[in-house]
């Protein structure tokens, strides 16, 4: 799940739709513009992301696509 909502709201929504509770605020993932291996692992392990900006959405999808292919 990727949402611009606050972390508490994102966790509640995740709970309602049966997703895991490992929801990470985007500002904890994207501390810099560089996406390194630890950041990739964090993205891969998350059930969702909260407080996401449009550019964060692009980077999340980009990382997940690179890990899948």
Structural notes for this entry:
With 69 residues, the protein is mainly alpha-helical. It has one domain: Rossmann fold. It contains four helices and two strands; from the N terminus they run H-E-H-H-E-H. Strands 1-2 form a two-stranded parallel ribbon. It starts with 6 loop residues before the first helix and ends with a helix. The model has no long low-confidence stretch (mean pLDDT 93).
What does the secondary structure layout of this molecule look like, with pairings?
Layout: H1 7-16, E1 23-25, H2 26-29, H3 37-45, E2 48-50, H4 54-68
Parallel strand pairs: 1-2
Short description:
By secondary structure, the protein is mainly alpha-helical. It has helices spanning 7-16, 26-29, 37-45, 54-68, and strands spanning 23-25, 48-50. The protein has a single domain, classed as 3-Layer(aba) Sandwich (Rossmann fold), CATH 3.40.50.
CATH topology: Rossmann fold
Number of strands: 2
Radius of gyration: 11 Å
- In total, how many domains does the architecture comprise? 1
What is the makeup of the main sheet? 2 strands, parallel
Mean of pLDDT: 93
Q: Unreliable stretches, pLDDT < 50, 5 or more residues?
A: none
Q: How many helical stretches?
A: 4
CATH class: Alpha Beta
In what order do the strands lie side by side in the largest sheet? Answer: 1-2
End-to-end gap: 20 Å
Give helix and strand order, one letter per element, not per position. Answer: HEHHEH
| CATH homologous group name | HAD superfamily/HAD-like
Q: Fraction of residues in helices?
A: 55-70%
Which CATH architecture? Answer: 3-Layer(aba) Sandwich
Beta-strand percentage?
5-15%
User: What characteristic shape results from the CA principal axes?
Assistant: globular
Which structural class do you get from the secondary structure elements? mainly alpha
